[in-house]
Automatic annotation (TrEMBL):
<dbReference type="InterPro" id="IPR029058">
    <property type="entry name" value="AB_hydrolase_fold"/>
</dbReference>
<dbReference type="Pfam" id="PF00756">
    <property type="entry name" value="Esterase"/>
</dbReference>
<keyword id="KW-0812">Transmembrane</keyword>
<keyword id="KW-0472">Membrane</keyword>
<keyword id="KW-1133">Transmembrane helix</keyword>
<feature type="transmembrane region" description="Helical">
    <location>
        <begin position="6"/>
        <end position="26"/>
    </location>
</feature>
<dbReference type="InterPro" id="IPR052558">
    <property type="entry name" value="Siderophore_Hydrolase_D"/>
</dbReference>
<protein>
    <recommendedName>
        <fullName>Esterase</fullName>
    </recommendedName>
</protein>
<comment type="similarity">
    <text>Belongs to the esterase D family.</text>
</comment>
<dbReference type="GO" id="GO:0016788">
    <property type="term" value="F:hydrolase activity, acting on ester bonds"/>
</dbReference>
<dbReference type="InterPro" id="IPR000801">
    <property type="entry name" value="Esterase-like"/>
</dbReference>
<keyword id="KW-0378">Hydrolase</keyword>
Amino acid sequence: MFVERWTSTSVGMVSTVVLATTWALWTRYWKRYAQRSLEVSGPLMFRETETHVYRTLAGIQYQAQISLPLSYHSSGQTSYPILVVLDAEPCLFSLFAINARYLAYAQEGSFPEVIVVGLGYSDTLPEGSDTTQQQSALEHWQGLRPLRARDFLPTAADSPYGAEPLKHVSGHAEEFFDFIENQLLLDLTKRYRIGDIRCLAGLSLSGVGVTHALMRDTTTFTHYAIGSPSLWWDGEVMLKRATDWVQSDDIHKVAAKVRTTFEIL
């Protein structure tokens, strides 16, 4: 499922096409990729990519990987849309960044160049961790589950499918998006030439987080791309919240804030 708030057709197309392509590649090659060893010593780096580590007031660390447009350093004062990708590791940031660059090149004039930011955890391992450890992508992904539950899920609950208990860690999405709004984006705006168009993207558990962000009473992001969100979480609480949000007394505010399109893959 994709939900997107549209203020620019071209960036709306970029967000949807990139997420659709990423999801198709992810589902097609996941089983094969998940069995391969993954170096956890650092992120995949390619041309015009930078990395920054942030620490919240509560002492939580995050790693942000930034893929700049190839024209960034030769384009004067040109500003660019920004696409913030949650669940950046083990490979979503790379898939988004590569697809965004390809679309900007192959569809020149139709798709804008964008700054892609992948928010993850790779360089935030505890001191003394064995950074040469070999692990599969699936093991890496599963190891991040408590952190993802903490940051992306707005309520504290346990999985109904018998998975690892999460009630003791989940339910801190509001604090996570406060960090994005009041720390991450403020710093990125000082470092880079970011335009008025800002998109937030996520899938699975982070898709729940993006859904939560969509309904927050802020103007931090202008576009939202949500892929296969785990809306079953906590008795489908996000669907209930969405119903209340759409049916709120201030319906004109809701209508002005979001026009949604739904696509089922």
